[in-house]
Amino acid sequence: MNTGSNKPGEAAVAADRTGTDEATAERALGSRAPEFVKARRALHLSWQVGVFVVGLAVVVAGVAMLVLPGPGWVVIFGGMAIWATEFVWAQLVLRWTKRKVTEAAQRALDPKVRRRNIILTSIGVVIVAVLAGIYLWKFGLELPWKIKDQ
Q1: How far apart are CA 25 and CA 54, in angstroms?
Q2: 3-state helix, strand, coil in the chain (%, to 5)
Q3: CB 38 within 8 A of CB 44
Q4: How far apart are CA 150 and CA 143, in angstroms?
Q5: Which residue has the higher pLDDT, 45 or 33?
Q6: Cβ of 87: how many Cβ atoms within 10 Å?
Q7: pLDDT per residue as tens digits for the range 105-121
Q8: DSSP label of 44
Q9: Is 71 helix (H, G, I), strand (E, B) or coil?
Q10: CA-CA distance, 99 to 24, in Å (whole number)?
Q11: What are the Cα distances from residue 118, in Å, to 84, 113, 130, 134?
């Protein structure tokens, strides 16, 4: 039997996580810089400044994409993920965000909530259709340019 070891009498044992909670199963907080960078204070500080500047550039680009075409929120969370490689506060923000998104997804899958959302969406569509019908009845369908004159 292959135990994963070259020494006789040893057995490879898989870690049992049945009794652990999510916090211990998640990755530890802190810097993920290489060890040779962490060993030198000046180099580690330079590394942190570089990570902060790159993450800031990505987050600023994401904020610009909120008003410009592009996936703004995705880019902002990408910048947060860059920051999370080095800063504990960003890791905590990302963990909180992941937890809230997971909770919202679970709530959205609840049959009662889905039924309510479908009913509210249907009511909204009917209201918009009625308002569009009233507008067309009152003002007609007049195009903003004159095609007949060209």
Answers
A1: 29
A2: 65, 0, 35
A3: yes
A4: 14
A5: 45
A6: 19
A7: 888 888 888 899 899 99
A8: H
A9: coil
A10: 15
A11: 37, 9, 18, 24
pLDDT for position 148: 63
| Cβ density class 65-82: b for 16+ within 10 Å, e for less | beeeeeebeebbbbbbeb
Q: Residue 127 pLDDT more than 60?
A: yes
Kind plus residue range of the DSSP H or E element containing 93: helix 88-108
Residue 149's contacts (CB-CB under 8 Å, 6 or more residues apart) are none
Which is higher by pLDDT, 22 or 135? 135
Share of the chain above pLDDT 70, in %: 75
pLDDT band at 40 (very low <50, low <70, confident <90, very high): confident
| Among 99, 80, 103, 76, CA closest to 91 | 80
pLDDT over 50 (residue 103)? yes
**Token pair 């490879």: residue:** 12
3-class DSSP state for residue 48? helix
